[in-house]
Amino acid sequence: MKITLVNYRHAYDRAWKNLGRPMPSHYLEWLPLKTVAERHGHTAEIFYIDDAIKLYGIEGARKVFWEYIVREKPDVCFAGFNEYDLGAKLFSRIKNETKTTTVLIGDDDAWRWERVGKHFGLCFSWVLTYDSRAIAKYKGIGCKNVIHHQPGVDLKTYRKIEGIRKDIDVSFIGLWTKPRENLIGYLRDNGVSVFVRGRGWPEGQLPQDELVSVVNRSKIALSLNTPPFYWGLRPLARCFFRRAHFGEKGYSIKLDIVNFFDNVRMWRDKKNSQVKSRHFEVPACGSFEITQDADDMRAYYKLGEEIVVYENDRDLVHKIKYYLAHEDEREAIAMRGYERTLRDHSTERRFEDIFQMIGKPLV
């Protein structure tokens, strides 16, 4: 079987400037997909849409990708955040005019469904959604082939470093949002020292290897899936405007009145908490995780036994101070979470499950 993944080669900032590092999908999707495919005797390739757009422009890249599908005839093609680059028309053509099974990866359906999923779901042979609540939404617009799974973790990238000293009490690594800033401020005001890194934070970001090291060094690693909804000028402006797509000409900010109601609903849906890849990455490093309950988290971890969840800001402060003071209990929970992750939650196992779900088992 020949398998293709469509995605970006590089990570970019909000102005689409190359940040000089791989996209997160490199670790979450491409590496495990390639590994598990080749292990079972299949071939896997990646089509870098950003490279194609740089060379040929958007329309040229779409033509080149169509020619690639016709020439290479992949049996399965996965697509993530490339819907607007390649477009609904092209994916519909691939679905209707070729034998390639296309799979839309709906990784942020908890809030992006109104803006993306409902417009592109029918263009694909299958939809893989990370949000259990989106299953009914996709079926409601006529998608018959909908599967649900959570992302898991690349165990080659996120790993336990033996002998490392846990010299960080509490850490959080992730994208800045206003609600997260408020929560970190609350923790610090209540005597909790928090090591923070990530895009948008004054402290800046970390390279991948340093990120893994920090998680390993942390006595408590926070996975803040705080819903990003908040009232403010920026989220309000996003109801009327959008960022230019990769390679799109003209101003970097585009008027988006035609999608106003979808944008408002997407803003509303940012109230939804969701299971994220970080929920699996922290236990994979053997570290103790505190997070919020979200979607179907309970299907993946035993709450209070393998990871710990908090109910509100005050409860989070209480649990941080409790587990910092009770090392044996903390490390026992971390070890159970680590063992569960190694056993059940690798991205390689996820892809084996997904291929089984779409009727194309790898073995």
Model description:
The protein has 363 residues and is of the alpha/beta class. 44% of the residues lie in helices and 18% in strands. It has 14 helices and 15 strands. It has helices spanning 25-39, 49-72, 83-86, 88-97, 109-120, 134-140, 178-189, 208-217, 233-237, 260-269, 278-284, 313-325, 327-344, 347-357; strands at residues 2-7, 10-12, 18-22, 43-48, 76-79, 101-106, 126-129, 146-148, 168-173, 194-197, 218-223, 241-243, 253-255, 288-291, 308-309. The chain has a 6-stranded parallel sheet, sandwiched between helices. The protein has a 5-stranded parallel sheet with strand order 10-9-11-14-15, sandwiched between helices. Helix 5 packs antiparallel against helix 10. It is globular. The N and C termini lie close together (11 Å). The model has no long low-confidence stretch (mean pLDDT 93).
Question: How do the helices and strands follow one another from N- to C-terminus?
Answer: EEEHEHEHHEHEHEEHEHEHEEHHEEHHH
Q: State the low-pLDDT regions, or none.
A: none
- Strand order in the largest sheet: 4-1-5-6-7-8
Instruction: Sketch the major β-sheet.
Output: 6 strands, parallel
Please report the number of helical segments. 14
Radius of gyration: 21 Å
